[in-house]
Amino acid sequence: MIVYTPLWETMRRKGITTYTLREKYRISGSTVQRLKRNESVSTNTLSDLCRLLDCRLEEIACYEPDED
């Protein structure tokens, strides 16, 4: 499954909060919640995050095998 654990470290390193994502960068609250729950988001959202955070996709998301 795709997880967004790297996103939170990237945001911490760059001093960006979820409030900043919502208010300054206009990422919707529901999208932030989906990211927190490792739920699916669009590739457009991932592209926007890469652009806004000036980072690569690997700094936002990674693949982890399911535990089943």
Automatic annotation (TrEMBL):
GO molecular function: DNA binding
Residues annotated as domain HTH cro/C1-type: 27-60
Superkingdom of source: Bacteria
InterPro entries tied to this protein: Cro/C1-type_HTH, Lambda_DNA-bd_dom_sf
The name this protein goes by in its record: Helix-turn-helix transcriptional regulator
Taxonomic path: Bacteria, Bacillati, Bacillota, Clostridia, Eubacteriales
